[in-house]
Amino acid sequence: MRNRRPFKVKKDTAKPVADIVKELKQDRSASADYRRRSLEIHGLICAKCGREFDSGNRHLLTVHHRDGNRCNNPPDGSNWENLCVYCHDDEHGRDILGDYFSSGKGE
């Protein structure tokens, strides 16, 4: 096994663990916030298949980012559409299949 030199971290640039945990919690709450807003704006219905959801099965409804950028969360919800888990998987599966065929491997 090859000996490696230890990775040096400058003490003045390293963040305390408490700050890192705080940032991660803020990111998680922001994530939950855009989901809540999308459900309020667009309702509990899948934009693709039209299936309606209620409080008992709303966990099966996901927020899909139309442009593919999960960080693009405009307050008006213009980049979101609510999709059921099945339609969401289908939407992303189409991208994978399209990439496969456009690469020439599917011929």
Can you put this structure into words, describing what you see?
With 107 residues, the chain is mainly alpha-helical. The chain has one domain (18-102). It has 2 helices and 2 strands. A two-stranded antiparallel ribbon has the order 1-2. The longest helix has 26 residues, at 17-42. It starts with 16 loop residues before the first helix and ends in a 5-residue tail after the last helix. The model has no long low-confidence stretch (mean pLDDT 83).
Summarize the structure.
This protein has two helices and two strands, in the order H-E-E-H. The protein has helices spanning 17-42, 85-102, and strands spanning 61-65, 80-84.
Relevant terms:
2 strands, two-stranded antiparallel ribbon, 107 residues, flat, 41% helix, mainly alpha
Topology:
Elements: H1 17-42, E1 61-65, E2 80-84, H2 85-102
Antiparallel strand pairs: 1-2
Strands, total number = 2
Specify the biggest β-sheet: 2 strands, antiparallel
Radius of gyration: 20 Å
The portion of residues forming beta strands comes to: 5-15%
The first-to-last residue Cα distance is 44 Å
Q: How are the strands ordered across the major sheet? A: 1-2
